Amino acid sequence: MELNENISAVITGGASGLGAATARRLAEKGVKVALFDLNEEKGEALASELGGVFCKVNVTEDESVDAGFEKARAAVGQERILVNCAGIGNAIKTASRSKEDGSIKHFPMDAFNFVIQVNLVGTFRCIAKSAAGMLTLDPLADGDRGAMVNTASVAAEDGQIGQAAYSASKGGVVGMTLPIARDLSREGIRVNTILPGIFDTPLLAGAPQNVRDALGAMVPHPPRLGVPDEYAKLALCMIETGYFNGEDVRLDGGIRMAPR
Description:
InterPro entries: NAD(P)-bd_dom_sf, Sc_DH/Rdtase_CS, SDR_fam. This protein is α/β, with parallel strands linked by helices. The chain has a single domain, classed as NAD(P)-binding Rossmann-like Domain (Rossmann fold), CATH 3.40.50. Helices cover 45% and strands 17% of the residues. It has helices spanning 17-28, 40-50, 62-76, 109-134, 155-158, 164-185, 202-205, 209-217, 228-240; strands at residues 8-12, 32-37, 53-56, 81-84, 95-97, 104-106, 146-151, 189-196, 248-251.
């Protein structure tokens, strides 16, 4: 897909981190961007900077996602690109003993379900609704109607202690990539997924410098945290390269996560 001013994109989680970096890269190519996020202050500011539109969207709610696509398409046109970066995480053991009194507790089901609803179901919700819109478009000269990039995590394959919900949600994103790509292949819509390693995103922004340094040192090469723009570059490669389809690609500096 050739990126230019005739192409529109929707980026979920687009107000910061991986999503914001991808929105900037797309905008540099002339692409009109719509940012889906819950952070109005950051989202509006970035949309204004990029000449795009911000849509306050909760990916766990059909009505919110529908309203977001309606607003985005009215402002920048029917998207040919969807990049799913919205996501959350938590760290809770499946079952554990209290160090204080020895009492036993298990992973709260509502906390487990919330991560699944945001990371997995929310991603699929946006894919399905975006794909339906892309089907209304004529194919481009290269045969593409659209291209999608999803965000999983190395935790999909190397889940650490306390990451049962997060790993399950991201493993689900990996697992559905190929079937969705197959579902949409005859319509000229490509689907790929990135599995980022330890990236310097807002999730780590509040961590002490010694913790950040220790995390970076775990990476074989280069021994540092990933930079959001590196994710953005891979996302654009997936979008622009017509033979890139149905793939799950780690972007992690060669790390394989230890249990903790």
